[in-house]
Every structure is written in C-alpha cells, then in structure tokens.
C-alpha cells in the first residue's frame, strides 16, 4: 500500500537544473549524462522559469542546422518552454498525475510557498509509487 499520497514522499529532492543562460549543448550534456528526458530551468533565486525537454533540444539543433547557425552558442532560454506548472510538496500525487496526463507533461517542479524549487516529481517517480502500491513485497526491488 502507498505510504502516502503526497508529492513529498515521491519527489526527487536533487533534480538536475540549469540556469537560463546555460549553453544548449551543456544542457544536452546534462540530459544525456543523467539519463533524463529534460531539465528544469531556474533563476538565481531557485525559482523555476522554464522547462527544457529532449524535444526542445532536438528542435533547437534542427532549427540551427536549417539556418546554418552554430547551435552551441544559444542559451537554453531561447529554447525552453516558459509555461511552468509547479506543485507543492503536500499536493496529492493522484491529482498531480492526472494533471500531468491531461497536459502531457513528464515533470513538475515542486516548490515551497515562496516559489523556490525544492524538488521535482516525474512520471518515473509516480510509476515507482504505483509499483510500491501494487507489487508484492518480495518483488519490489527488481
């Protein structure tokens, strides 16, 4: 059974983040090295200002190639999605999962009451929570 239905119990507490002025190739490197599908872009105060996905990176590379530009000299702020949907640590994971499905988003930054990022909840984390709920105890760590 789920120990909780709160985001705080399933969120990543140290997600990979980048600054808006991070070079797009550095962000791509972080995505590849960490085997993740995207990163949250945070400002100097730790507030989420964007999301950069693998698709955003691919779009940036193709656009630069089409225009015969150097890709690596572009900051992630030129390519990130600026509509950031955040959640609080005490939000219900079922509501968050439903919203992620509805809006086709793979991650949600978790923020404190001042809007600073304290974690991230992802589809993978939600699947792990469901696995803990549904799988017999002797098969959980496979």
Could you explain the architecture of this structure?
The chain is built from four helices and six strands. The longest helix is centred in the middle third of the chain and has 13 residues, at 54-66. The model has no long low-confidence stretch (mean pLDDT 87). It has one domain (7-133): CBS-domain. With 142 residues, it is α/β, with parallel strands linked by helices. Helix content is 32%, strand content 18%. Helix 3 links the parallel strand 4 (87-88) and strand 5.
Topology overview:
Elements: E1 17-18, H1 24-33, E2 38-42, E3 48-53, H2 54-66, E4 87-88, H3 93-103, E5 107-111, E6 117-122, H4 123-134
Parallel strand pairs: 1-2, 4-5
Antiparallel strand pairs: 2-3, 5-6
| Residue-averaged pLDDT | 87
* CATH class label: Alpha Beta
> Measured on Cα atoms, how large is the radius of gyration?
17 Å
CATH fold call: CBS-domain
Tell me the series of helices and strands, N- to C-terminal.
EHEEHEHEEH
Query: Which structural class should the secondary elements be placed in?
Result: alpha/beta
Main sheet characteristics: 3 strands, mixed
Taking the alpha carbons of the first and last residues, their distance comes to 18 Å
Low-confidence stretches: none
For the largest sheet, list the strands in their spatial order. 1-2-3
Q: How many helices in DSSP terms?
A: 4
| β-sheet strand percentage | 15-25%
Query: What characteristic shape results from the CA principal axes?
Result: elongated
Number of domains: 1
> What would CATH call the homologous superfamily?
CBS-domain
The share of residues in helices is 25-40%
* Secondary structure: number of strands: 6
The CATH architecture category equals Roll
